Amino acid sequence: MVFFSFLIAFIVGGLICVVGQLIMDVGKLTPGHTLAILVVAGAVLDGLGLYEPLIDFAGAGATVPITSFGNSLTHGALAEAEKHGWVGVLTGMFEVTSSGISAAIVFGLIAALIFKPKGKAN
Amino acid sequence: MDPQQYQQIEQQNTPPTPYLKNALKAFLVGGIICAIGQAITYLYIIFFDFTDKTAGNATVATMVFIAMVLTGLGLYRKLGAFAGAGSAVPVTGFGNAVVSAAIEGRTEGWVLGVGSNMFKLAGSVILFGVGSAFFIALIKLILVSMGVVKW
Question: What is the dihedral of CA B96, B101, B107, B111, to 10 degrees?
Fold first, then answer.
C-alpha cells in the first residue's frame, strides 16, 4: 500500500512536470510563462472540483507541483465564499496556501543572511 | 537576403529540440521530487499528528526549506540545467526562485535588494494564482446565487 502511494506520487508528479516541459519546448515559452499557465490550470481544475480528487489519489504527486498553489488559493477563496459571501473571496484566499508563501519569505530571508551571492543566479 | 530565406537558414541551423529526452528527464526528476514529498507527508502524518488534508501544507513548507539549502549551495541550478521543468514545476522550483533572488539581492542592500527582488521571479506565479482564484471564486459565487450549481 505504502509503496503504491510512492509510485503514484512519482507518476502523477512526473506527468505534471512533463506537461510543463512540453509547454516550454513545444510552445517555446519561458519557465516563468509555463509556471503561470500551470498555476492558472490548477485554479481552474479546483473550480471544476477536479483537483481535490487528484490529491486524494496522488498525494504529494498533486500537492508538490505548483498547480497545487492555484488549487489551494481557489480552495480557500471558495470555502470562505461559501460561509461569508463576497468578502470571503478575499479573506479566504491565503487561508490554505499561506505556508508556501510564508516559508518562501522566511527561508529567503535566512538564505540571504547565511549564503553569499555568487554573481550568477543560483 | 529576404526575411523568409533568413528564417529558413535559421531553422536549418538551430539544433532540434530533443522533446522526448527533455520530457523523460522532467518526468524522472519531477517524479522523484514528488516521491520525496510523499515521504515527508508520511513523516508528518506518523510523527506529528497531521492528517491527510493538513500534511500537504507542512510538506510544501519543508520542500521550500530543502530548496533553500540546495539553492544556497548552488546545487539547484545544476539540477535545473539537467531537469528543466522537472525541477521548476515542483514547489521547490518556486522556493528556488525566491531564495536565489533574495541571495542575489544582497549586492543591492537589504531593503532595495533583498526586499524588492525577492519576488522578482516568483511574483508572476502569485499574481496569476491569486488573479485566477479570485475570478473563479467570483464566477462560482454568481453561479451559486443564481442556483445553477451548488457549493
Answer: -120
Torsion angle of the four alpha carbons A44, A49, A51, A53, in this order, in degrees rounded to the nearest 10: -170
Q: In this prediction, what percent of chain A has a pLDDT beyond 70?
A: 97
Q: What is the pLDDT of residues B88-134, one digit of tens each?
A: 999 999 999 999 999 999 999 999 999 999 999 899 999 999 999 99
CB spacing of B85 vs A85 below 8 angstroms: no
- Per-residue b/e over B87-114, b at no fewer than 16 CB within 10 Å? bbbbbbbbbbbbbbbbbbbbeeeeeebb
Whether the CA torsion B4, B5, B6, B10 is positive or negative: it is positive
User: What is d(CA B122, CA B86) in angstroms, rounded to the nearest whole number?
Assistant: 17
Closest by alpha carbon to A48, among B96, B74, B149, B73?
B149
Partner-chain residue, chosen from A22, A56, A86, that has the shortest CB–CB distance to B141: A86
Radius of gyration of chain A (CA): 17
* Cross-chain residue pair A93–B134, CB shorter than 8 Å: yes
Whole-model pTM?
0.91
Does the beta-carbon distance from A18 to B99 stay under 8 Å? Answer: no
The predicted-structure confidence for A43-78, as pLDDT tens digits, reads as follows: 999 999 999 999 999 999 999 999 999 999 999 999
> Structural domain boundaries of chain B?
18-120, 122-151
DSSP state of B51: -
Angstrom distance (rounded) from CA B57 to CA B30: 19
